[in-house]
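Can anyone check this?
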Amino acid sequence: MERQVNRCAAAWVAVMLGWAGLTGCSSDEPSTSPASSAASAVKSKASGLASSAAAAAVAAAEAKASAALAKVKGGLDAKADVTLGSVATGSNGRAEVPVNVTNHDSKPRRYTLVVNFKDQSGNLLDVVVLEVPDVAAGATDHATARSNRELTGTVTAEVRNALRY
């Protein structure tokens, strides 16, 4: 898919540069040159392609999260059992957030969590499913939620869903 996007972007650049070469500056009015218009259009198109790829990645992550939650039978809402630390960037460039899961039940339980990563405007950047197996009764387990890809800018995390079963 990425290779196809790159070929489309390259074709777009060729078309825009060809158009810029065929048009001339025949006006005495101050205006933007065709070359800078073409460069601006290419930059805009590349930005659109990047955001389309990001949107596709988020949609795929959301589908994976929905499928993981659907597999849980008899799960109870356990968002109150989960706390998140501060988001940091790991050595691989991906966003990471420490997760603490406290089992308030009298039996060992498993947890399936869905963590949203958002930008400072609240836009969804990524969705992660985290399985925390066998949390002992009355105990707290620690895990780390990692984004599926590199995220830039100020990133926050929130627990979207937490099921205990």
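Reply from J.R.: I decoded it. Confidence is low (pLDDT under 50) at residues 1-50.
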